[in-house]
Amino acid sequence: MATTASKYPQHYDDDEDDDDEFEDDDDDDEPSRPLPAGSAEDRLEAAVGPDLARAATVPELLRAAAAAGERLRRLGAFESVSITLDTAPPGVPADARGGAVVVLVDVTEARGRAAGGLGVFANTETRSCSVEGSLRFKNLFGYCETWDASGLLGLDQTMELNVGAIIPRIGPIPTPLMARVSFLSEDWLKSSLREHLMGVSVGLLSTMNYNLAYNLSWKTIIDPARLSSSSIRDQLEHSLLSSIKYTYKIDQRDSSIRPTCGYAFLSSSQVGGLAPDSKNTRFVRQEFDLRVAMPLGVWNGALNAGVAAGVIHPLVTGSTGSISSLPERFYLGGNKSLVCRLGGPSSLLGFKSRGLGPTDSQACAPKNSENAAPISPELDALGGDIAVTAFADLSFDLPLKPLRELGIHGHAFVSAGNHAKFTERDIRGFSVTEFLKTFRSSAGFGVVVPTRLFRIEMNYCHILKQFDNDRAKTGIQFNFSSP
């Protein structure tokens, strides 16, 4: 069976109809203008793909048409997409496989579609609030591209700006084109340090599950109060991070806000120190994250379980052996959802951000007067070169019908994790048994309010196990987590 494709008409009206049947142009109030040859039409044909022309049977043709329509919809550049299969008009020759089929693709293009948001969020951990905003433009120049910008300004002197663009894979472009510029300035909680970061990230290869990106960042760690510990003082300098990162991600869960079935897996490998002047940012980093969701069949309940692990091996040797860069180490704790985030070990409910693991005492602050009592020094979190976290989360519907209709549900959870230094000297004396014995853990329950953009949790956390110098607290916590 041979297939032929007609010219793809493009509409410029505001028709929101998403019907799957082809609409005749003669019925439109405003005639459609054809796409210029060699430009938008070529990109449209490339997005449709060659499978329609290769189909040899009717079932193959139907599957190819459905797949082509889905690809066009995923581009997000069209208000409506419809593909119609029709018999060829008289005079179209048939090949040896049978009669010819005409494929009619009708799309209504959406130009410059914009979306944005602005919100004020409270962080109970830092006792401060922040203003966050985002703006996104879709198909601004007609290449199905996405332009986005986001920003955060916090009362704790945290500022973050991100601007990026994504052009999907079309025609001669072998892979989606991605580029992002970012700026970050933040204070490390309960620490004398302040971090500044300016970076550029460029996507080299991207598919549905694979991503290869290059990152170039200029980082600065400063100590305005000059109170940093001796372990951190050596890293108070500028550093250049030139790295390449490969990520494999698959997410088969039915939802990232409230998953009830499916699984998700992420593996990321990063090599830092590609530039000649990368100083102490030469390392190899590997992370894994596995999530599983199982339905229980009662009260719409589901059991979510996950385990994440990461290790960083520094390639720079100092006076005490190999030393990893301070910002690249693993830090555990913080009020982040156990379920949503898929990106390696980090969250441990009930513990403050960077609130557990190896620490070092800061320099003592000067006394206000001679008779004043000495001030006990704060502790600087040193992070770890190896980290492991695990959790289990049981979600269930609440008995009140109005809450169920809004998606508000309850959950109970338990989480555990630990991290440790893993330098050359530590490897020789590293004990897996001791590492497992020093796991920190917490448990609790709460109410979850899911929204379209993020997940709000109001939890009561109880610390099951902690050690000296850990910053943890039993009580009520609030957190906002995006998928």
Describe the structure.
- The chain is mostly beta strands and 483 residues long.
- It has helices at residues 40-48, 51-54, 58-74, 230-233, 401-405, 424-428, 432-437, and strands at 2-5, 10-11, 78-87, 100-109, 113-123, 128-138, 146-154, 159-167, 177-187, 194-206, 210-222, 238-251, 262-272, 283-295, 302-314, 317-318, 321-322, 359-361, 379-381, 386-397, 409-420, 440-450, 455-465, 475-481.
- Strands 5-6-7-8-9-10-11-12-13-14-15-20-21-22-23-24 form a 16-stranded antiparallel beta sheet, with no helix packed on it. Strands 1, 2, 3 and 4 form a 4-stranded mixed beta sheet that branches. Strands 16-17 form a two-stranded antiparallel sheet.
- A hairpin with a 4-residue loop joins strand 5 and strand 6 (128-138).
- The two termini are 45 Å apart.
